[in-house]
Design goal:
265 residues
């Protein structure tokens, strides 16, 4: 039985994760941390029934807890505390929160190598999204240009999304292309062409009713190609997340990206 603590447990994604853990036969939810719904039984909150696990507002209040894995889907500003708490106790860490800086990633890598805690971070836990990025990387070898449109719910804290940024980083051919913006091009409204990251234009859309969506639009002479992934329910992240949970004890050190857990080359 894999004993797990979830940080950000009362959020939309946190509730989905907690419910998913409670449904798995080889996992046990032993702790739930959030600044909301403090004192409430997490099972009752997610419609599972009483579990005896009450939500606390700090990891330090998980007295005498011996989890094997900490999952953090809270906010990038809170991840440092989660990682520090886990590393001090030899607990493995899985982070699905986006918006982490390169400095944070470097620190986590160093911590994983100097401790007993393995750390796994993924900008997107949806297997379909990982395949979308991999296919986009392949397509970028054959098309002259591309742009990324990412669409998320209006409560998302960061833009562009971590998935869009990571996708742009993978598009080697596009990234190295010179003359990305036409010389005659004029933006009548600032940023109407989106933000430029690694030589790729990224457009962020935030609207109620959306969950998480991204399309990468490629163009070359006489043709276009659109590769799109849609998350219609937050449950789409659970298969990838639980793959990470079940494998993290055997992945020494620091791992970045769900693709490392998939046999996709």
């Amino acid at each position: 039985m894999i004993k797990i603590v979830v940080v950000g447990a009362s959020g939309k994604m946190g509730r989905t994760i907690c419910r998913g853990i409670l449904d798995e036969k080889d996992m046990e939810l032993v702790g739930a941390v959030s600044l909301q719904e403090v004192g409430r039984d997490i099972g009752e909150l997610v419609g599972f029934g009483l579990t005896g696990v009450e939500i606390v507002d700090s990891l330090d209040k998980l007295i005498n807890m011996t989890p094997q894995v900490l999952i953090d889907f809270s906010h990038h500003s809170a991840v440092d505390k989660s990682v520090a708490w886990a590393v001090e106790r030899g607990v493995h860490v899985i982070v699905g929160t986006t918006g982490l800086s390169q400095d944070q990633l470097r620190r986590y890598q160093e911590l994983s190598l100097s401790s007993q805690s393995n750390i796994f971070i993924a900008p997107n836990m949806a297997i379909g999204a990982v395949l979308m990025m991999k296919l986009s990387q392949l397509a970028s070898r054959y098309f002259e240009d591309c742009e990324i449109i990412e669409l998320h719910h209006d409560q998302k804290a960061d833009s562009p999304s971590g998935t869009a940024l990571h996708t742009a980083e993978l598009l080697q051919g596009i990234r190295e292309r010179e003359g990305r913006t036409a010389q005659h091009e004029v933006e009548k409204v600032t940023c109407s062409r989106g933000g430029l990251y690694h030589n790729v234009h990224i457009h962020s859309i935030r609207l109620p009713g959306l969950v998480a969506h991204q399309e990468v639009i490629f163009g070359t002479k006489g043709q276009t190609l659109i590769i799109r992934h849609d998350s219609t329910d937050r449950g789409c992240y659970l298969p990838g997340l639980f793959r990470a949970v079940r494998s993290i004890q055997n992945r020494r050190g620091f791992t970045y990206g769900l693709d490392k857990l998939l046999d996709i080359g």
